[in-house]
Amino acid sequence: MHTAVFDIGKTNKKFSVFDENLAEIHREYTTLPESEDEDGFAGEDLALLTAWMHETLEKALLRSDFEITRLNFSTYGASFVHIDQKGQPVTPLYNYLKPFPEALQAEFYQLAGGKEDFCVRTASPALGMLNSGLQLYWLQQLRPRQFATIKYSLHLPQYCSYLFSGQPWSEFTSIGCHTGLWDFSRNGYHHWLTTSGIASKLPESVNAARKMSVMVHGRTIEVGVGMHDSSAALLPYLLNSREPFLLLSTGTWNITFNPFSTELLTQAELNQDCLNYMRLDGGPVKASRLFFGNEFNRQTSQLAEVFGKKGGHYHHTLTFDEELYRKWSVPMEPFFHLETMQYPDKAFFRLLRSSGDKFPNPEEAFYSLMIEMMRCQGAVGAPGWPLATPKGNRFVDGGFSQSDVFIHLLRRASGI
Length: 416
Prior knowledge:
CATH superfamily of the largest domain: ATPase, nucleotide binding domain
CATH topology of the largest domain: Nucleotidyltransferase, domain 5
CATH class of the largest domain: Alpha Beta
Structural class: alpha/beta
Strand content: 15-25%
Distance between the termini: 41 Å
Largest sheet: 7 strands, mixed
């Protein structure tokens, strides 16, 4: 009996099969070209993604070397698929990077009781389309004909589940990822959903542990309701750790989770780009975030271009070098200038396209960049529990956990 999981990132899409001991016995990746919405803004090609998922699972079910009896989904958040009465998407999957009209945003905050009150209650900074609930308001106001055809709006993990189960659900980890939907002060949906008439577009909310037994490509399979990917990364640690901990989940976003604080986020923490996520059962998880992986990819690609390194991935095999660390960790005017920790208006760093007289080789440029970025990572920590505080355990998950340089620098920044 084996478990299959679709892990859908904005860039890479992964399909894995696990045995009864949760050892991965099969994995395949793909990247899919994006399509443009009606405004010409690039985003996920929903038709391509749907076709790939169906084809991938069907091929796996035909294999004789494993027997898939369970299926679940982990995807990026802040993204809705809007379906009609027949279960068909009625809009593109709008990219959460799409700009949100300022005038409409001001109108929304007036409806929701004011920007500051809205952010405190929903435990999220004001992020435009990245507050996925605002996507619903945007559709209602600017695409009323399409909005009228919507039966249900499903977050992407739940839409992936719907493709195979046919059952529409809302789910707590998706609802709680900076959506602007949940009022943490009253442990329920924010009043703006009812005031605007949008609440009816959201199906019943369930725990992520919910599963359904359905026929999929001729096989009986237990299908889960899906989870927001960052919350999915946190789950194994919550289930297996008996002591308090911080989890740094690394990737496009580096998210530091503090699941052991029960206090509401303060305005000061929100101003520092902190937010709440949610557990499977709807409980809050304080977190802070840094657009680390996205900026890392952008900067290292430019470094590769400057130094004539093809592909931009030369840094993956680098091991920690104490001499380079000492050389580039001394106080100096930074080469990679910090602009802001707020997303999505600006990048965190602007690369000064450095000539050889500043960096004699790409390795030294890479160390300078990583040390400056790690200073930002170390400063972010988690609300109520800075990363440098020697309290509890620390876990690192995701792509950067495999980087020897990242782990060594994180230890130095954390005082470990």
